[in-house]
C-alpha cells in the first residue's frame, strides 16, 4: 500500500464531513448510489488508493467496498485530476473525454457523479 500523501485525501476528509451535514444528507437522498474512486499519485492504474463514496449511507471509507454487492460505478483518476474535478475546475465529462477519468460500471450511475456531490470549493 502506497503511503504517498495524496491531495485527494484532504478532499475525501472534507467529503466525510460534508455528508454528515444537512446538505450532504440531501445528496445521499438524491443519489443513493455507491461509487468507488481509485486515485493514482502519478499514473492511472499504478499505486492506486481506493476510496468508497457511499451515497446510500452517506459515508466515505478508504479501501475496498465492504457493503456486500457491487459498487454502482468505479472512477479512476490521477490525484491532480481528481482535485480539479472535485473542486469544479474540470467538468467530469471533459475529464472523461480527455482520458483524465476512467469509468467502469453503470453509465447512468456515473452521470450522477457531478461536482454537486462535493462540498463547495469555498470549504476546500
Automatic annotation (TrEMBL):
PANTHER family: SCP2 STEROL-BINDING DOMAIN-CONTAINING PROTEIN 1, STEROL CARRIER PROTEIN 2 SCP-2 FAMILY PROTEIN. It comes from Arabis nemorensis. It holds the Pfam family SCP2. Residues 18-114 form the SCP2 domain. This is SCP2 domain-containing protein. SUPFAM superfamilies: SCP-like. InterPro entries: SCP2_sterol-bd_dom (IPR003033), SCP2_sterol-bd_dom_sf (IPR036527). One of its GO terms (cellular component) is cytosol. It comes from the Eukaryota. Gene3D superfamilies: SCP2 sterol-binding domain.
